Amino acid sequence: MQAYRLLLLSGLHQLRKFTVDDHLVSIENLCFDYGGKPVLRGIDMHIPKGRVVAIMGGSGCGKTTLLRLIGGQLRPTSGQVKVAGEEVSALGLAELYALRRRMGMLFQFGALFTDLSVFDNVAFPLREHTDLPESMIRDLVLMKLQAVGLRGARDLMPSALSGGMARRVALARAVALDPALILYDEPFTGLDPISLGVIGHLIRRLNDALGATSIMVTHDVHESMQMVDYIYFISAGTIVAEGTPDEIRASRDPFVDQFVQAKADGPVPYHFPAPNIAADFGLTMDTGALA
Ligand SMILES: Nc1ncnc2c1ncn2[C@@H]1O[C@H](COP(=O)(O)OP(=O)(O)O)[C@@H](O)[C@H]1O
Ligand SMILES: [Mg+2]
Predict the structure, then answer these.
(1) Number of domains comprising the chain
(2) Residue 135: CB within 6 Å of ligand 1?
(3) Which protein residue has the closest C-alpha to ligand 1 atom 1?
(4) Which domain holds residue 241?
(5) Residue ranges of the alpha helices (H) in 102-244?
(6) If you take atom 5 of ligand 1, which residue's CA is the nearest one?
(7) Dihedral (C-alpha) 44, 49, 53, 55: value to the nearest 10 degrees?
(8) CA atoms within 13 A on the CB side of 102
(9) Is residue 274 part of a domain?
């Protein structure tokens, strides 16, 4: 318990620095190209401390790229990303490393280390980033595992876990260092509906218990509406809609409608751009039935 209090105190000390800026994450006019190909175009986001925010959009619209820019793995082509008042792309390596220590990341397909037990997976970031004695690490790991309901599974190997359990261990590992900012890339992918609900609930609970801020990339609109404070919709590299879950439910925006109702066609077209259909099939009659 005392060990935990110590870590909590050092966490509070780190958090105090974040009062520099009301928004834990501020993104302004962010643009990013991959080798000249525009991926993000003029993104603006201001995320207050304590919030759980979802970023939604179809595959390839730039969601993972955005998380990597926030985490400092990529540098903006123009515009800026500030985390806790610090411009991420302006940080030197040591400062970036220090900032990353305050971030928890659960990346898409972010697998557990298969040759380490559940316990050692969660202990990994603590052993890597702190000099805490093994007895303290033990207490901290068991507390994180308790928080995700898997204290009893500490000695299992990842191959013995169900998909939902493995995701919960990954969650415990992502929050092992009591991060101030947690980034999740598609945390619900491949889960059955019950595990999906459990993970959604845990993301919210861990955020609130740690006093953290969470950004979650997902296309699970229904799960997100139940647990997040705010939602951004991205299409073709720009924010096309945003709001609280209530605002999104009430929205008449055609993009939101297409996404929430899972309609095949809408502002995001079903058809890839193609030549005129009559010309392609050598037809002169009415082609309505083929559209
Ligand atoms: N390393 C890379 N090099 C070039 N293009 C990339 C790279 N990574 C992603 N892209 C492209 O950038 C776009 C956005 O990718 P990504 O951010 O992964 O999308 P999302 O996570 O929304 O599915 C896609 O068109 C993708 O093909
Ligand atoms: Mg992605």
Answers:
(1) 1
(2) no
(3) 34
(4) 2-265
(5) 118-129, 134-147, 163-174, 193-210, 221-227
(6) 34
(7) 30
(8) 27
(9) no
CA distances from 283 to 102, 272, 277 (A): 62, 20, 8
How far apart are the C-alpha atoms of 21 and 254, rounded to whole Å?
Answer: 34
Contact 221, 144 (CB under 8 A): no
Whether pTM exceeds 0.90:
no
Q: What is the CA angle 134-166-137, rounded to 5?
A: 10
In the predicted structure, residue 9 carries a pLDDT above the cut 50: no
63 Cβ closer than 6 Å to some ligand 1 atom? yes
Is 65 close to ligand 1, i.e. is its CB under 6 Å away? Answer: yes
Secondary structure of residue 28 in the 3-state scheme: strand
How many angstroms separate the CA atoms of 268 and 58, rounded? Answer: 9
Q: Order across the sheet with 23-34: list the strands.
A: 37-48, 23-34, 78-83, 86-87
Assess if residue 225 is contained within a domain.
Answer: yes
Distance of alpha carbon 116 from alpha carbon 10, whole angstroms: 28
For residue 288, what pLDDT band results from cuts at 50, 70 and 90? low
Q: Is 61 in the pocket of ligand 1 (CB under 6 A)?
A: yes
Q: Classify residue 272: in a domain, yes or no.
A: no
| Ligand 1: residue whose CA is nearest its atom 9 | 65
Question: Which of 94, 86, 35, 22 lies closest to 65, judged by CA?
Answer: 35
Give a yes or no: residue 273 inside a domain: no
In sequence order, what are the residues at sequence separation of 6 or more whose Cβ sits closer than 8 angstroms to the Cβ of residue 278?
A: 284, 287
If you average pLDDT over residues 218-241, what whole number do you get? Answer: 92
At 126, the amino acid letter reads: L
Output the pLDDT for position 78. 97
Look up the CATH number of the domain holding residue 52: 3.40.50.300
Which residue did the predictor score with more confidence, 125 or 265?
125
